[in-house]
């Protein structure tokens, strides 16, 4: 994912995650206490907030689950971490996940990625999270959250180094560990700043200067920390001939004697697990950190009593079957029982291997697996579900030997009998949301998402029964539009998956789809946003390559059967259709700060307002429903502007200091006349609230109320927001890793 002041979505040519220097080696951390669900980044102003009930629309996962951790001393207690969507706690009675980091606010968006997590076996209520999504200079330093009540409340220690929860190696770990000899001591492995230590339960941190490995600005650094009895082991990915270190008896660190010789199959230690019953440490290796670009790997067993190593690799990667190894977990109640996962095995599909004899023999669990994805039908991907991919998170329930869970690039699969597998994902929603449409009839909601295309929600509390939109299947959706005077007609565009088709239309409100009969040659490699005229007769499609290169827009008047270039349309712009007049389209040229207008059904465009904010592709126009030529321009920190004359002139909206995303919903009830549509935005209006918030106005932007609260912030929410045309006050908000949030006034 590319970022400047906030994350900016990066399209991907195939399904993948929404897809680098800390300086000082000594880290002085500041600590703060977060009451309730979190600290407010800005003061609340009395009388300017309307309480809402916030919920998450059900899809089920949809993102990379990078870690799953059962508490060794509490039955049914588990935690999960994600690369961009925060952390979760498992509610065993309700069989669902509870989000633990939704309190993270706008300015802390980089903390929504969880690099590592740790529990204290001696203190079951303690939980630690290492947060930080990117290590690049544009991102803020990381932080460590610590909780004494299983994540209900937090204290926070800010670091001066950056962590990389959404970078290569994010499935390694865990990189955070409570010292088995002293619960006050914690260890944190970083990518570029060596090994950190805290002696006050995570309140402050400093570099462990005795750690012998030398950090690299471009390396992976410490990939894992694991306790084996009273000993601590650390995995190192940046070469030097040593991949595994151990705390020695003097309190320093030493290379583990006899460890596997350096080579492609043992280059990066990915995960490790200690079997206390047999006093054996199992380590999975690969030739890269993953989750992509692995072609070799192995699994090794260390007898921590004798120091003897043994290669216990289930299947050696080779020509025609290249992959690495990922997760490794042991059965706490059955010594010698261990489970490992393959990773990046796209040909034969990834599997879990299970051994009950310490790695002497193995059984592939995928080969007998019966998958049931009825609760999350999108996992069929327009065909048949897969057992997994990007499997680096793996755990065995310490209280149930037959309960195994593994994370994938989209879900968490679990089994209770080693044969039947189903998603154990309820409550965990990780979508990166790109587009939202609440139709006036038919479906409750249509959404365009990163990695999994388009969804149609007929109910918000269950995953869409049709799964992801198919015919064709997309990876990341790039465009979604509805004909306002003919709302059963919908079009979508996106990165092709399984075919070359990058666009489709629906005549039944998104229930079924037909691919465009033809498409411009550039479409499969640079699909961009799309617009449809109010009557559904005209399509405008623009094209942007993943590297930012912009191409000419094209126009169709026959549902995509034929296309013609529109030379006067600004390349790379996002087309917007007038909601009443089928002849009118608008586009904001963010390169020049000018609005271009069409009154001939998109055939030609002429310049309208000029001198507007420029230089940011996320500046955008929205057209007010039920009106012609009533346009609103969200220009981030340049504020909110409005045009009443079809884009010829714009006037700043007084009192709005920042506007990032804007949409409309049903007008507030008024006696005798129809009111102006409710306006929703992610923005800053200091008369209402000092920080960036989710806001609503029922008087055309004259006044605003905050409708989210300090417990519901979700990091960066600047991509999309819309109201409901059927229910006043209902709002749908797209997040960057926490799915679709929706709310109604209390």
UniProtKB/TrEMBL annotation:
Domain of life: Bacteria
UniProt name for this protein: Carbohydrate-binding protein
Keywords: Carbohydrate metabolism, Glycosidase, Hydrolase, Polysaccharide degradation, Signal
Coiled coil residues, start to end: none
Keyword Transcription: no
PANTHER family xrefs: OLIGOXYLOGLUCAN-REDUCING END-SPECIFIC XYLOGLUCANASE-RELATED (PTHR43739:SF2), XYLOGLUCANASE (EUROFUNG) (PTHR43739)
Keyword Iron: no
Family in the record: Belongs to the glycosyl hydrolase 74 family.
């Amino acid at each position: 994912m590319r970022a400047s002041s906030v994350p900016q979505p990066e399209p991907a040519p195939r399904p993948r995650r929404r897809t680098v220097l800390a300086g000082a080696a000594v880290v002085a951390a500041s600590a703060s206490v977060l009451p309730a669900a979190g600290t407010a980044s800005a003061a609340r102003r009395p009388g300017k907030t309307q309480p809402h009930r916030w919920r998450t629309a059900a899809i089920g996962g949809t993102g990379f689950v990078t870690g799953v951790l059962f508490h060794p001393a509490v039955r049914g207690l588990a935690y999960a971490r994600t690369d961009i969507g925060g952390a979760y706690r498992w509610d065993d009675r309700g069989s669902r996940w509870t989000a633990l980091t939704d309190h993270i606010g706008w300015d802390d968006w980089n903390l929504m990625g969880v690099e590592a997590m740790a529990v204290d076996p001696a203190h079951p209520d303690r939980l630690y999270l290492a947060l930080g999504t990117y290590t690049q200079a544009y991102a803020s330093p990381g932080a460590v959250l610590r909780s004494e009540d299983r994540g209900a409340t937090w204290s926070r220690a800010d670091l001066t180094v950056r962590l990389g929860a959404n970078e290569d190696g994010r499935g390694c770990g865990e990189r955070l560990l409570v010292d088995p000899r002293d619960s006050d001591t914690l260890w944190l492995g970083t990518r570029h700043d060596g090994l950190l230590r805290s002696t006050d339960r995570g309140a402050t941190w400093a570099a462990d200067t005795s750690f012998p490995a030398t950090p690299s600005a471009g390396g992976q650094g410490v990939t894992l920390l694991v306790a084996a009895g009273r000993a601590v082991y650390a995995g190192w990915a940046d070469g030097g001939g040593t991949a595994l270190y151990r705390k020695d008896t003097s309190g320093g660190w030493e290379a583990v004697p006899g460890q596997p010789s350096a080579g492609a199959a043992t280059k990066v230690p990915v995960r490790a697990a200690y079997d206390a019953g047999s006093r054996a440490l199992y380590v999975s290796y690969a030739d890269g950190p993953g989750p992509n670009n692995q072609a070799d790997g192995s699994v090794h067993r260390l007898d921590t009593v004798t120091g003897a190593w043994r290669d216990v690799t289930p299947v050696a990667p080779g020509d025609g079957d290249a992959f690495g190894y990922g997760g490794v977990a042991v059965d706490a109640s059955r010594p010698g029982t261990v489970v490992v996962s393959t990773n990046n095995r796209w040909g034969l599909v990834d599997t879990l291997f299970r051994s009950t004899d310490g790695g002497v023999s193995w059984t592939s669990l995928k080969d007998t697996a019966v998958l049931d994805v009825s609760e999350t039908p999108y996992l069929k991907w327009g065909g048949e579900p897969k057992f997994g991919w990007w499997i680096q998170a793996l755990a065995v329930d310490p209280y149930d030997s037959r309960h195994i869970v593994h994370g994938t690039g989209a879900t968490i699969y679990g089994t209770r009998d080693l044969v039947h597998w189903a998603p154990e994902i309820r409550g965990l929603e990780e979508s990166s949301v790109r587009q939202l449409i609440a139709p006036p009839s038919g479906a409750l909601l249509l959404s365009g998402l990163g990695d999994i295309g388009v969804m149609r929600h007929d109910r918000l509390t269950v995953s869409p029964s049709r799964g992801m939109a198919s015919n064709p299947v997309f990876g990341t959706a790039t465009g979604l539009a509805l004909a306002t005077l003919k709302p059963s007609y919908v079009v979508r565009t996106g990165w092709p998956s399984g075919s070359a088709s990058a666009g489709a239309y629906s005549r039944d409100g998104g229930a079924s789809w037909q691919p465009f009969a033809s498409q411009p040659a550039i479409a499969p490699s640079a699909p961009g946003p799309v617009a449809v005229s109010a009557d559904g007769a005209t399509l405008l499609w623009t094209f942007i390559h993943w590297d930012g290169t912009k191409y000419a827009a094209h126009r169709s008047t026959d549902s995509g059967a034929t296309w013609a270039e529109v030379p006067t349309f600004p390349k790379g712009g996002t087309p917007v259709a007038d909601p009443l007049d089928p002849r009118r389209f608008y586009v904001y040229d963010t390169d020049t700060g000018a609005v271009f207008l069409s009154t001939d059904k998109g055939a030609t465009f002429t310049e309208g307002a000029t001198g507007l904010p420029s230089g940011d592709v996320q500046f955008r126009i929205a057209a007010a429903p039920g009106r012609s030529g009533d346009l609103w321009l969200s220009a981030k920190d340049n504020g909110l502007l409005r045009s009443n004359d079809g884009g010829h002139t714009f006037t700043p909206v007084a009192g709005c200091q920042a506007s990032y995303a804007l949409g409309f919903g049903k007008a507030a009830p008024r006696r005798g006349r129809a009111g102006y549509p409710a306006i929703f935005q992610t923005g800053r209006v200091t008369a209402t609230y000092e920080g960036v918030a989710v806001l609503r106005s029922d008087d055309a932007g004259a006044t605003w109320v905050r409708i989210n609260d300090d417990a519901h912030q979700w990091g960066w929410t600047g991509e999309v927001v819309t109201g409901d045309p059927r229910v006043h006050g209902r709002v749908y908000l797209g997040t960057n890793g926490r799915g679709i949030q929706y709310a109604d006034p209390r």
